[in-house]
Write a structure and sequence with these properties.
Radius of gyration: 23 Å
Helix content: under 10%
Number of strands: 35
Distance between the termini: 39 Å
Length: 621
């Protein structure tokens, strides 16, 4: 096939201007606003520089249960599965290695962030979300306890995440380990073994789950530090681990920005070497499982000064390719291979053509949609079209004109602000996805007990929650397509879900819990809500064990023939605990009578040496 010539022009690059003053709203509605609704820059800087402190975290969380309820208001309690955090019909002694060794085991692990009780504790552990063990007879043992203590099965979990004590991180932070991260993010689709952490001092670094290349083979957690005055406030990874998108409060230039960071890793489907660490790596394309390096490409100026939440999506989602060798011998100097990738020829030879990020500013009552199509198309044109363009990607380095190219050198790749809409006090956001480009996508529907093929609703919808308790659904139109016309998303539905919904979790990490569904934490009600892609409420529960819930993480634990369960972990800030719940679907051939169990159950409460506020996990390989 002849070389594919890239189009002469990328989609039109719109001018991204500095933010305008916030609209006039009610006086005293937010601590960073003046009475006339403009930004109070003194408070703005105070909040930004203290973004990981208890005082500012309380501001970030917004009103709690007592703001909406009296102490005498009734609140339910979910029934517990098993006792003392353990259930199942298998030999429970295998948890500590005291019985015959287990035949199989599974856990997800990741970063547990908290404000520590003790000085010197950096406030980030590598913890698991529980575990599933299969005993010698393939009977299951479910361990719902969150743990950062190394144990018989998982020696990689640690009370202090090893990334945070890396010499490179210390050097970037002025000689001491950075403390109390702002957040950690992972991809909503690709099995995101490597996550990315952000800190109030501007440090941005790669983390992992434990039994993975960054920890074992590479012993390296790449990191950068932003210039003085640029404070990260939220982070999202694109669906296939291509880029990290970080919202910034710029206290020197007094504006909000989106920092775009390219990630380097192996393509999917490179079954080779320990932990699937292949010999080929690339930037800004689907990659798994390690992140070998990161590079700041530049910034997009936003029309808001104080962005507080972000999510991202694209028109293609790709699996990890684990146990497959489709790209083991990938050689993009070969024109036919570039043609395959350009034409999305094969399940593991696909890349995103377009996508968007949705960003909210709670104080400014705004949501911003950023078009990522110029970025995705630029990387496709460099890797998959002409030999000369591909050759330019082999000149890797830190300079702007080395790969991956900085925005200052190649501005045609710059993401653009597509639209800005008014939303009253937006608290958290989500961006739906599909498999894309002729690849089917399905999920299990627990209400009908069958597999349901996606109708595209999820991929077309952005979700914005408001402090007053609405979930607003927006049809994003062409934002998630290659069409260059990007009209403003249209509000299609409002759903009342509960007071101050401050956290959303969803994606393929929720495999057993229906990955196209949204799981919402309502801080003002101590409630958990499950929503379908169309906004219908599947389940709404409260639990009296929660003292001060501020965040949640949906995931699952499953192994072999002995089954598993969906895992929903709630971060209880003032209660200093992580509460584990089983949201309505257990899979085990012989647990509790076997089969499907649609009740929501409580698993366990695990104490934390401080006040927890985020948890991000993925499979322990």
């Amino acid at each position: 096939m002849a070389a594919v010539t890239p189009p002469d022009a990328s989609p039109a690059i719109k001018t991204v201007s500095a933010p305008q003053p916030a609209p006039s709203i009610a006086a005293g509605s937010d601590r960073i606003l003046n009475a006339d609704g403009t930004v109070n820059w003194t408070e703005y800087e105070k909040v930004a520089t203290g973004y990981n402190t208890d005082e500012i975290l309380q501001y970030r969380f917004g009103p709690g249960y007592s703001a909406y309820h009296s102490a005498s208001d009734p609140i339910g309690s979910l029934p517990q599965s098993g006792s003392n955090g353990i259930d199942g019909s298998g030999d429970k002694r295998i948890i500590e290695g005291a019985a015959n060794p287990w035949s199989d085991w599974f856990a997800m692990s990741g970063q547990l962030g908290y404000v520590p009780d003790n000085a010197g504790d950096p406030g980030m552990a590598r913890a698991n979300n529980g575990s599933v063990y299969c005993d010698a007879s393939d009977k299951p043992v479910f361990d719902y306890r969150v743990s950062s203590k190394p144990d018989y099965s998982n020696p990689w979990q640690q009370p202090t995440d090893p990334a945070i004590t890396q010499t490179s991180w210390k050097n970037l932070s002025g000689g001491t380990a950075p403390s109390v991260p702002v957040a950690v993010a992972r991809s909503r689709y690709m099995t995101s073994v490597a996550g990315v952490a952000i800190f109030a001092n501007g440090l941005i670094g790669v983390t992992s789950t434990g039994n993975d290349p960054n920890t074992v083979e590479l012993d390296n957690f790449p990191a950068i530090r932003l210039p003085e005055g640029k404070v990260p406030t939220a982070i999202a990874l694109t669906l296939n681990h291509e880029f990290a998108l970080v919202t910034i409060w710029d206290t020197i230039n007094r504006k909000g920005q989106l920092a775009v960071i390219a990630l380097e890793g192996n393509p999917p489907g490179v079954e080779s070497g320990p932990h699937f660490l292949g010999k080929t790596s690339w930037w800004g394309q689907p990659n798994w499982p390690a992140v070998k390096a990161i590079k700041l490409l530049g910034y997009v100026d936003l029309p808001v000064a104080a962005p507080t939440s972000i999510e991202a999506t694209g028109d293609v989602s790709v699996e990890s390719g684990r146990n497959y060798g489709d790209n083991l011998d990938m050689d993009l100097s070969n024109q036919s291979q570039r043609d395959d990738w350009y034409g999305n020829q094969g399940r593991l030879r696909r890349s995103a053509h377009s996508g968007y990020a949705v960003i909210a500013s709670r104080a400014e009552n705004k949501a911003v949609f950023v078009d990522l199509q110029p970025l995705f198309q630029y990387y496709r044109s460099m890797y998959f079209t002409t030999a000369a363009r591909y050759q330019a990607t082999t000149n890797v380095g830190a300079n702007d004109n080395q790969w991956p190219h900085a925005f200052a050198y190649k501005p045609e790749q710059l993401p653009v602000v597509a639209s800005t809409i008014d939303v009253p006090r937006p608290t958290t956001v989500a961006a739906g996805f599909s498999r894309g480009h002729e690849q089917p996508w399905s999920q299990w529907d627990s209400s009908s007990n069958e597999e349901v093929w996606d109708d595209g609703k999820f991929a077309r919808t952005a979700y914005i929650a408001t402090e007053a308790g609405e979930m607003q659904l927006y049809d994003v139109g062409n934002l998630n397509s290659e069409n260059t016309s990007k009209p403003t998303p249209t509000l299609t539905r409002k759903v009342q879900i509960g007071k101050n919904p401050i956290a959303l979790s969803y994606g393929t990490q929720a495999w057993f819990a229906e990955p196209n569904n949204l799981y919402v934490l309502t801080r003002g009600d101590k409630g958990l809500v499950q929503l379908r892609p169309n906004g219908d409420v599947v389940k709404s529960v409260t639990d009296s064990r929660m003292v001060d819930p501020v965040n949640l993480e949906i995931s699952y634990n499953w192994r072999g023939g002995c089954g598993g369960y969906a895992s929903l972990n709630v971060l209880d800030y003032a209660g200093k605990k992580v509460h584990s719940y089983i949201p309505g679907r257990r899979l085990a051939s012989d647990a509790n009578g076997g089969g499907e169990d649609l009740r929501w159950l409580f698993g366990n409460s695990t104490a934390v040496p401080g006040r927890p506020f985020f948890f991000s996990s993925a499979e322990v390989m």
